[in-house]
Write a structure and sequence with these properties.
468 residues, alpha/beta, FAD/NAD(P)-binding domain, Enolase-like, domain 1, 6-stranded antiparallel beta sheet, 31 strands, globular, FAD/NAD-bd_sf, FAD/NAD-linked_Rdtase_dimer_sf
Amino acid sequence: MTRSTHTLVSQLVEAFRAEGRIVIVGASLAGLRAAEALREKGFRGELTIIGDEPHEPYDRPPLSKQVLKGWVPADHTKLPRLRPVDATWRLGVAAVGLDRANNQVLLANGEKVDYDRLLITTGTRARPWFNPEEAGLQGLFTVRTSDDAAKLAAALKDRPRRVLIVGSGFIGSEIASVCRDLDLEVTVAERGKAPLVGALGGVIGDIAAQMQLEAGVDLRTGVAVKALDGDRSGHVRQAHLSDGTVLDVDVVVASLGSIRNVEWLEDAQLATGFWGVACDAGCRAFDINGVVTDNIFVAGDVARAPHVLYEYEFMSQEHWDNAVSGAEVAANNMITLGLDRRPHLPLPSFWSGQFGVNIKGAGVCSFGDEIVFTQGSVEDRRFAAAYGYKGRIVGAVTFNHGKWLPYYASLIEKSAPFPPPPPGYDRPADAEPMPARFPDPREQTGIPDVVLTGHDPTSRAAEFRPRA
């Protein structure tokens, strides 16, 4: 390559880095951090951030903890700005479609926003109550947005006679803990065998169940809520459980999991579905045939990407640090080419505060099929446990023992043997591996299948179809 050619290439690369129109759909943690990273790395072009909520990006973890306790108002959780982003903010208007042929985002108000490169950070929303008629009852809440948290905090402040929480994942368990801290009577209805069983398995779930019972929670496992009844004013008053029990309640919190916000991409021919938007390790979105796109990127809760530590399984990670690191990688790769692009391969981590215990974890615990207690005391709620799969450590969780988590994270990153090497001290009396007791993944779900369509090999294409 001659010097003049090299200079021309350098100028083109610099122009690609600095100019053009980038649109971020999702005024979220990932969206904000990506915008900041773009400016930090030298992007000088037009930047537009679209969000369906009227609020600027805010922090979600406090909503189920400090906000519900009344320590922090819901509108005081705005995320700090790490640097000016010099963006056009389109808040309070949802994206309803994507025209890839013309590089346009379609908005609910009929407007179209042009882009050269697009970043999708639309995240998730709370799964609504399954009965549309009952969903309109006053006193029935979900917790996902700051407005949700503000309404529930006001309801708890009025001291209801009994709160019913449907679902005992991390959010449901944290809300149950808040209710007990507020000295409110609370019942938790869980379809599974124990709280947290989907994320941490039955061994840890049994410990979480005991924590709830000791705190005075009326924990009901193996049951579902079949129906809700309201009074003449339309306020919820009773809940009918699948075991025939009828509960008198004033507040119901539906903690039924999340739905990824991908409906607006339905006609865009991207690889979207129940688990989000599929992308490569560089945050580039796949189209519906598995071909990587050049100008559409994904980050945050809505992204689903392969992970080298977990047999390249496509994974969605609804964790705070994943949103931040994914946003930074996506921003870098949107304005760089070739060898300057980076992979997004974070080691997942999570934390939860409930019933006086600080729970922290690393890796993907549910990928494992065995568990071993490695440090501390289960009875004292102060321990570390590791998860194994095919002879290697894949995850770890600590209860009030978080200072040791970096040690286990380093083992996971190295695919160290399972059981892991002894830490040197504070070993429990029983340090033998046992089945982790996760729910059977072969159970039927409502997740769509992927099918091949087309009457001949040259016209084959993939699409998602709901199961019959």
